[in-house]
Fold this sequence. Notes:
By secondary structure, the protein is mostly beta strands. The chain has a single domain, classed as Jelly Rolls. Helix content is about 15%, strand content about 55%. The protein is built from three helices and ten strands; from the N terminus they run ααββββββββββα. The protein has helices at about 1-10, 20-25, 140-145; strands spanning about 30-40, 45-50, 55, 60-75, 80-85, 90-95, 100-105, 110, 115-125, 130-140. Strands 1, 4, 7, 8 and 10 form a five-stranded antiparallel β-sheet that branches. Strands 2, 3, 5, 6 and 9 form a five-stranded antiparallel β-sheet that branches.
Amino acid sequence: MSSILSQYETPVVISETRLQQLLRTKRATPRFLQGVYPFAGRGVFDLAPLNEALSYTVPKGKVAQVQYFRAGNLSDDILYLAISTNGSPVRYFPVGPKSDNHVPLAIVEDHPAGTRIEVCLAAPRGLTGTVVLDVGLVEIDAEEQA
């Protein structure tokens, strides 16, 4: 009986994803673009960076992946946020008035070293308000992605 108990006393990892394994072994590092930011809408077709603090440049020797996007809109009208890479929008996230959303990304792209990732916003002209953001990225050693 004691041999069976000792078998269960040792922690065992039964199953983990590749990302979990990279994080556990410190070959990947979580990074976050987050905060509470005021905005003034310039028009729904005028997508622009929301705040300099919501930008991230992938360091040399690394690859970055956006894993999830959370946003809350405290204003009285719909707006949309977008993730852009090197100035071009690649993902759009509409957020209704006084609403929020959480999007775990099912398709995750690799962004190589030097890529600038930023959060942009577009809202109806004259709309003012505040957004709450939490964007989760993971920075992976480039040789792990080869």
